[in-house]
Amino acid sequence: MNQFILDYLAAFGIGGILLGSFIEALGVPFFPGGIMVIIGGFLVGKGHMSFPAAMVATATGFLTGSVLAYLMGARLGARVFEIGGRLLKVTPVRLDKARSYLEHSAPGFIIFGRFIPGISNLTPYLAGAGRLSPALFLALTAVFAFSWSAIYLGLGMLFGHNWDKITGQLQPLFLTAALLGLAIYLILIYRKKAQKG
Question: Which residue has the higher pLDDT, 163 or 48?
């Protein structure tokens, strides 16, 4: 079964990693782009693709998606948040917080803001809407893209080499967590019924 899953994931190959990191860079909420890159690292560790090819695909996809988001922000300005506010899960508080980060430190915002949940998907749009220099945006995003690629691919490779050992140790924990979750769920349902009755 494990080999079947691995072969299935390997079929996506470099193109899947490139597309996944492109969509991730656009800031689409709940899209597992980072997980796809980690799986790419897992496949690199298993010898299904080369590290340089996976690294270039990940960084290229991320850069391309970021530039597209930047251009949308520059073209539409504040309207990008009105149009895509629901999709990007943008609340006025989160938008003000992100603007504040950008005004205080563009390099910190572009590089480290991508690691902050809720801010990360706004980063390229705000940089474009805030008229950050395209050259500075591209340079900072490239630094982030290659760093992010290396970290996530490295994590996948680390887990890939130790996959059997890790899953063997975690399997009892997953069962315990599932049983605990079920018990909490049943208790909550019982309490709700008791409060109504």
Answer: 48
